Amino acid sequence: MSEVTNELMKTIGGLAKNPNFYLMMGPHHRGQRGHHRGQARLMHLLEKYDGLSVGEIAEILDVRPSSVTSLVDKLEENDFVERIVDEIDKRITLIKLTKKGHAFLKNKKDEADDLSEEIFARLSEEEKDTLLRLLKRVSENLNDVDFGDYISKMVNDSIGRHFKFDDGDIHINI
């Protein structure tokens, strides 16, 4: 590893370990503080596809309908969503965001936008464009790297057994 790539890895590692970076990029990102992640996912889904049934939501989010019902109950208590009887099929109840729900999501997006602006305030537009372009390339490279041999060597060195990782499978030679 060259001195520059070593420094890059340390800097990226430092970002990943920085509690402020985690708060910005972790489960609380996009203003989801104070709200269950599932509730936030549901609200973002309804923002995109307003007027879905519990069954449709369960299918899209790959969760049980009872879990969706529980999330909807909590969001309804806070007036973020409402249940509306489908005009075409009265047996179906649709879940829709309320004005308060839309306003809540917009407010949280605005807060996240403000934070992003503050974090990158010391960079020029050209520097931001360059950083974005370079990080996308690093991300592409990271996706192309086969970590199987690296992980195998790391595990084998630490425990003295021969493990091989490929395509997500673990092979053990004792």
Task: Please give a structural write-up.
Among the domains are: 1-30; 35-122, Arc Repressor Mutant, subunit A, CATH 1.10.10.10. Helix 4 (54-61) packs across helix 5. It has 8 helices and 5 strands; from the N terminus they run H-H-H-E-H-H-E-E-H-H-H-E-E. It has helices at 3-17, 19-25, 37-48, 54-61, 65-77, 99-119, 125-144, 148-159; strands spanning 52-53, 81-85, 93-97, 162-166, 169-173. The protein has a 3-stranded antiparallel sheet with strand order 1-3-2. Strands 4-5 form a two-stranded antiparallel ribbon. By secondary structure, it is α+β, with helices and mostly antiparallel strands. The relative contact order is 0.07. It is elongated, with a radius of gyration of 23 Å. Residues 5-140 form the HTH marR-type domain.
Characterize the overall form: elongated
By CATH, the architecture of the domain at 35-122 is named: Orthogonal Bundle
Using only CA atoms, what is the Rg? 23 Å
- With strands numbered from the N-terminus, the spatial order across the biggest sheet is 1-3-2
Helix content bin: 55-70%
Q: Classify the beta-strand content into a percent band.
A: 5-15%
**N-C termini distance:** 32 Å
State mean pLDDT (0 to 100 scale). 82
Order of helices and strands: HHHEHHEEHHHEE
Oligomer: single chain
- The CATH H-level homologous superfamily of the domain at 35-122: Winged helix-like DNA-binding domain superfamily/Winged helix DNA-binding domain
**Largest sheet, strands/sense/barrel:** 3 strands, antiparallel
- CATH C-level category of the domain at 35-122: Mainly Alpha
Uncertain runs are: 27-34
Number of strands: 5
What is the third-level CATH name, the topology of the domain at 35-122? Arc Repressor Mutant, subunit A
The helix tally amounts to 8
Query: Which structural class do you get from the secondary structure elements?
Result: alpha+beta
